[in-house]
Design brief:
Strand content: under 5%
Number of domains: 1
Protein name: Gluconate:H+ symporter
Structural class: mainly alpha
Length: about 475
């Protein structure tokens, strides 16, 4: 490693410490301001030209806001329609009525697993928030319940969505590793599903049960009311939609993304249907169609007022506006770290040690993801570095290497990740509380995934 690499790594570490200090100390700086100040400081400390700093800040915030922010806004609209039509309330009541309290986290894990098969982590969480809040709000009203019901219900969802995102094709991360390493989807999917089960269990319901009595987290009242309070703003009382139609409206974006994922695996590269599915399955388009379907099926078709619907959708954006901007700040921080070549310094660091290929793939993906704030960078970087080794070693189990890389990319989601800020702001957490939830949960999932990979490697290969 060169002295410059060491300087980059120290700068990245110090930047995170300064960011935390600005937010949690007596200064109590707003996270968006803290993220932008620290990002600019990293640029200056690494010798970046002032014009490049400004360009990277704008680019990082814009890309993240485009990829995640609009989807969050559409998810807030969909959640508002589902809440005002009574759909979320009835779903939550059905889950609580049919499920003992101790089994609720397991039920939520199953729901999140299904939703998370085709969806990015952030998109899946936005879709699940109305149900999480509705179930938790009813649960916390029970006299015997102690601790944060939102942690009790939310942690299993976070674990399931994270495991699906990093371990199981057709998510882009695992598919990228598979393509780069020139291995096959089938065995990787089988390994991924099997590894995801214990990872979700330990990182979700079991860790959530441990954490719940130790936390009192409760979301912001405005956001909570938006997703859980049934009103008559978008439709008249006598014509409430059935639960089945409401469930279809809630899951339509996930179904469209799932169809696209299956089409990518089953159809030829230039098939006309693949272009159609790619358009409909794009997260932004899928969420937009979900909102439009919900508006038509749950409001207009039942005599709801267009003016009241418009007013309700406008109100739905107010509680998430701050979340969207903070996530954009996280994107700026991520872009600055990437542009400063912190990832290259991490790669040079790994060259100083000798690890087995499966462990090395997990470690490189982990370090790149933690340092740059992007699981995709972690996967692409690790897969690209290990591709020559994968091609030259016939004894190496390539589906397991792809899975190890995907697991590593999940480790310790923190302040330069959009998902961290989405969880923190949605659940009304402090930095410490968010670290104890999403950061630790994803670390558990990542480590359990690596252990599963090493155990699978002792068995005969699949396929």
């Amino acid at each position: 490693m060169s002295p410059f690499d060491i300087q980059l790594l120290i700068t990245a570490l110090v930047s995170v410490l300064v960011l935390v200090a600005l937010i949690v100390s007596r200064i109590r700086m707003h996270p968006l301001l803290a993220l932008l100040i620290v990002s600019a400081g990293v640029g200056l400390a690494t010798g970046m030209a002032p014009t490049d700093i400004a360009k990277n800040l704008t680019s990082g915030a814009g890309k993240t806001l485009g990829a995640v922010g609009v989807v969050i806004a559409l998810g807030a609209m969909l959640g508002k329609i589902l809440a005002d039509s009574g759909t979320t309330e009835r779903l939550a009541s059905a889950i609580l009525r049919r499920t003992p309290d101790r089994m609720i986290p397991w039920a939520m894990t199953l729901v999140a697993l299904v939703v998370g098969i085709p969806m990015f982590f952030e998109v899946g969480l936005v879709v699940m928030l109305p149900l999480i809040f509705s179930v938790a709000r009813k649960l916390e009203s029970r006299e015997h319940f102690r601790g944060s019901a939102y942690v009790y219900v939310g942690v299993p969802v976070i674990a399931a969505l994270a495991a699906m995102h990093g371990m199981v094709p057709p998510h882009p991360g695992p598919l990228t590793a598979i393509a780069t390493l020139k291995t096959s989807v089938g065995p990787t999917m089988v390994y991924g599903f099997i590894a995801a089960l214990p990872a979700m269990a330990l990182g979700g319901p079991l860790y959530g049960a441990f954490l719940t009595p130790r936390m009192t987290t409760r979301p912001d009242r405005a956001l909570l009311d938006q997703f859980t309070t049934t009103t008559q703003q978008v439709g008249p009382a006598p014509t409430q939609p059935g639960v089945g139609l409401g469930v279809l409206a809630a899951l339509l974006p996930a179904l469209l993304m799932l169809v696209n994922a299956l089409a990518e695996m089953l159809l030829p590269a230039h098939a006309p249907l693949l272009r159609v599915s790619a358009f409909l399955g794009n997260p932004l388009i899928a969420m937009l169609l979900g909102v439009l379907f919900a508006a038509v099926a749950l409001v207009y078709a039942r005599g709801g007022s267009p003016e009241k619907l418009r007013e309700a959708l406008g109100q739905s954006l107010k509680p998430v506006a701050s979340i969207m901007l903070i996530i954009a700040g996280g994107g700026a921080f991520q872009q600055i770290l990437t542009a400063a070549k912190v990832g290259d310094a991490i790669v040079h660091l790994t060259h100083q040690f000798a690890f087995p290929p499966l462990v090395l793939g997990w470690l490189i993906a982990m370090l790149l993801s933690v340092s740059t704030g992007s699981a995709t960078v972690g996967i692409v970087g690790a897969a690209g570095l290990l591709a020559p080794l994968a091609g030259s070693d016939p004894t190496l189990n390539l589906p397991l290497l792809a899975l190890a890389i995907g697991c590593g990319s999940l480790f310790f989601n923190y302040a330069n990740h959009a998902g961290f800020w989405l969880v923190k702001e949605s659940f009304g957490m402090t930095m410490g509380e968010a670290t104890r939830t999403i950061s630790v949960v994803q670390s558990i999932v990542a480590v359990v995934g690596l252990i599963a990979v090493l155990l699978f490697n002792l068995l005969p290969a699949i396929g």
